TrEMBL record:
PANTHER family: TWO-COMPONENT RESPONSE REGULATOR. PROSITE patterns: HTH_LUXR_2, RESPONSE_REGULATORY. Keywords: DNA-binding, Phosphoprotein. This is Response regulator UvrY. GO terms for molecular function: DNA binding. InterPro entries: CheY-like_superfamily, NreC/VraR/RcsB-like_REC, Sig_transdc_resp-reg_C-effctor, Sig_transdc_resp-reg_receiver, Tscrpt_reg_LuxR_C, WalR-like. The modification 4-aspartylphosphate is found at D56. Gene3D superfamilies: 3.40.50.2300.
Length: 219
């Protein structure tokens, strides 16, 4: 197989450095660019055309879900592997819905990341063992997540609204009109049965959309 070029997307430089070293120790792997934000990931994808994008879901501003969506809108054949701390089945399924081809948790052994990256580069799908078990357990138990009723774009807006970002700021970040963001906001509240914005925040935390890091990272 020819060389696999990689765009690595994570908002922590030290983390990126560690994973870049891990990946480039593998024969035939080369990291051609690194990005900290969804916007930077989209820009670098256009200029570097990597074989695979390896990205975290938790980024400053718009998340990895938004990066997946934008990259796939530009290139329907883009190969994207999510590499994240989010361990819930619902997040993994939403990442695939947005256009990802693989999902590996950061708690997985390095060998799983390498195997998944190779599979995605070859046009296949891949999930880490822990996520495959989560998905199977959820389906067998018939468990329902609040995220099941939301599209990836709605989850993105839920995360930004619940983190305290203003409507105008969200609109600018996602290239939408404030009115469109407001419509999404009301629609999300209706789908989740949120009585008010405080309840919406509570639901977002319960679904794992928000983490303590979110409140530190958002402007």
């Amino acid at each position: 197989m020819s060389e696999i070029t990689i765009l690595l997307v994570d908002d922590h430089p030290v983390v990126r450095e560690g994973y870049r070293r891990l990946l480039e120790r593998q024969d035939g792997f080369r990291v051609v660019a690194e990005a900290e934000t969804a916007a930077e990931a989209y820009r670098l994808y256009r200029t570097t055309n990597p074989s695979v994008v390896v990205l975290d879901l938790t980024l400053r501003g718009p998340s990895g879900l938004e990066a997946i969506r934008n990259i796939r809108l530009r290139d329907g054949q883009a190969r994207i592997l999510v590499f994240t701390m989010h361990q819930g089945a619902a997040f993994a399924l939403k990442a695939f819905e947005a256009g990802a081809a693989g999902y590996v948790t950061k708690s997985s052994p390095p060998t799983e990341l390498i195997a998944a990256l190779t599979a995605v580069a070859r046009g296949r799908q891949a999930v880490s063992i822990d996520i495959a078990q989560e998905i199977a357990a959820d389906r067998l138990a018939g468990r329902h997540s609040p995220l099941d009723d939301l599209a990836p774009r709605e989850i993105e807006i839920l995360r930004l609204v619940a983190s305290g970002m203003a409507t105008e700021t969200i609109a600018a970040a996602l290239h939408l009109s404030p009115k469109t963001v407001q419509n999404y906001h009301y629609g999300i509240k209706a789908k989740l049965g949120a009585r008010n914005d405080a309840h919406l925040v509570w639901l977002a935390i319960g679904a794992g959309v928000l983490t303590p890091q979110t409140f530190h990272d958002e402007p």
